[in-house]
Amino acid sequence: MSGEWWKKAVIYHIYPRSFQDSNGDGIGDLPGITSRLDYLKWLGADAIWISPVYPSPMADFGYDVSDHTDIDPAFGSIADMDALISAAHNRDIKVVLDFVPNHTSNEHPWFLESKSSRTNPKRDWYYWKDPKPDGSPPNNWLSRFDGKSAWKFDDGTGQYYLHTFLEEQPDLNWRNPEVRAAMQEILRFWFKRGVDGFRVDVSYRVMKHPDFEDNPLNPDWTERMDPSFRVTEKNTKNTPDIHQFNRWIRETADEFDNKVTIGEMNLSIEQLCKHFGTPEKPEFHLPFNFRLIFSAWTKENVKRYIHEFNEFLPVNGWPNWVLSNHDQPRFATRAGAKQTRNGHLLLFTVKGTPTLYYGDELGMENVEIPPDRVQDPWELLTPGLGLGRDPVRTPMRWNDRTHAGFTKPASTPWLPLGKDASHQNVSTQRKTSGSMLRFVKELIQIRKESKALLLGDINLLENLPDAVLGYVRHHIDDSNAYLVLINFSDETVPLDEAALFSEMGLTRPSLHCLLATEGDQNEIALHSPISILPNQGLLFSFQYEN
User: Fold this and answer.
1) pLDDT tens digit string along 54-100?
2) pLDDT value of residue 3
3) DSSP H helical ranges for 350-415
4) Cis amide linkage into residue 529, ω under 30° from 0
């Protein structure tokens, strides 16, 4: 898989603490990931994205980095990372790491120097500001984790420092050219070790308003909402000069061959498409598209997002899709068991790069975490609001043995596995015809063998009932085209055959059913009247008539 490999790739997102523990301490690690590469190759993953594994005090489980060019002992060693990269490449699997540019740990040597005195050469590497005359913080910016001030007062130097997240995560000042040079050198360090790309954490938050103006109040906020939403984020998120930051990242990646940059941003598709940049000034290869994570799973929403990509995608852009991640409720929990397979059907047949969160291929749902097992600082700081991320970070289920094979029998996993791990696991589902895992693997295989599904155009179908989403994928160099139909309702829905085939440019039903989310595709014959079962999704291949 060579130039622009990310367009064809299936990216598999690994939360390393929860994937595979190799040494029995209850925490997943790099040797554990290496031991499971054959599974990922079998599944059809082309790349793995690994959440942070750098040295860290773990105030935010690795997103508070204290050394950007080493590996935390909890996850192994830099030799283990080298071995993982080599083993993955031997299986034609790319390796994408997390890059955390917005902040460091407050235990990072840079911050310790910066904090030591107002005259320290690294003072301006972070945001330090004087108090207001009454001693209060410099402005009304709020921390994303607890909704309190994003400014922490330092008694030693009499100034506040900015922390968009925990107070243990001071924000870096990317307007300082020394910071920029140091962070770019970190990217080069890992690129030279063979890393194939970076997912850039909260990329759209890195550049703050240079005048540090107050954020406007949010008139829609209520006490049951995330407390950090009391003010808008006009001056702390997606500011106009964020595109300069994007270009710094892209320019560094472009010093090397075939490296991908993925920006984390919770924006509308219209807004995120601006983060591709232009052919003359390119930015991210893949600005992450979270619309399916932050929106209800409805036909109207999905259709709108596909349409918006068609409308706003620049000539140098490429769509991408994701259903779950390490910060938000799992798709199977949000959409419900009846629609989970339809989500996968869309993910692997819609135009764009799919990212699959570990365990979603099994249909894993959120796991209830007992109060005495809660780990996530977000939940500890905002109890009762449902913001905690532990339920979506629980260990991967490998087999029906103790701890589902995640760790050694005598060990205690860092988070509970959930009651259904004994049957909802890789070993059981690999052996079970019609399982979620077998379904996802077959979908990925169909995708890999089709130029139309990998790189082709997409045409939304309009002449369908309200509950049914339909689209066609086709490519000039692929003799087969593909029809996807998804029923979002609990009712059997008849289709108007004449209208459907007329819109597709067909005069007769020359379709072959490749896959059905419900029922046996071998028993599905399209004849009048065509009907789609409740919550059923169908994938057909066909050839356009000469």
Assistant:
1) 999 999 999 999 999 999 999 999 999 999 999 999 999 999 999 99
2) 77
3) 377-381
4) yes
Name the CA radius of gyration of the chain, rounded. Answer: 24
Residue 300 falls in the annotated catalytic set:
no
Domains of the chain, residue spans: 5-102+177-444, 109-162, 457-542
Are 5-102+177-444 and 457-542 the same fold in CATH? no
User: What token pair was written down for 138?
Assistant: 């410099």
Distance CA 161, CA 141 (A): 12
CB-based burial label for 533 (10 Å; 0-12, 13-18, 19+): middle
CATH for the stretch 5-102+177-444: 3.20.20.80
Alpha-carbon gap, residue 516 to 539, rounded angstroms: 6
Quote the pLDDT of residue 498. Answer: 87
Question: 146, 201, 264, 390: which one is catalytic?
Answer: 201
Contacts for 167 with CB less than 8 Å, ≥ 6 apart: 106, 143, 152
Beta strands in 196-274, from DSSP E residues, in sequence order: 197-200, 260-263
Q: Which CATH superfamily is domain 457-542 in?
A: Golgi alpha-mannosidase II (2.60.40.1180)
C-alpha to C-alpha distance for 329 and 321, rounded to whole angstroms: 16
> 3.30.450.40, 3.40.30.10, 3.90.400.10, 3.40.50.10190: which CATH number matches 109-162?
3.90.400.10
Stretches where the chain sits below pLDDT 70 are 1-2, 509, 520-529, 546
Give, for 474, the enclosing helix (H) or strand (E): strand 468-474
DSSP code for 128? E
Asked if 164 and 144 touch (Cβ cutoff 8 Å), the reply is yes
Q: How far is CA 165 from the centre of its chain?
A: 19
Instruction: Determine contact, residues 188/255, Cβ cutoff 8 Å.
Output: yes
Q: What does pTM read for this prediction?
A: 0.97
Residue 317 half-sphere exposure toward CB, CA atoms < 13 A:
24
Count of CB atoms within 10 A of residue 181's CB? 10
End-to-end Cα, the chain, rounded Å: 33
Is 496 part of the annotated catalytic residue set? no
Q: Which residues contact 471 (CB under 8 A, 6 or more apart)?
A: 306, 350, 458, 459, 460, 461, 483, 484
Choose, from 255, 270, 311, 457, the residue flagged as catalytic: 255
Type of residue at 13 = H
Q: Which two three-digit tokens encode residue 23?
A: 């040494």
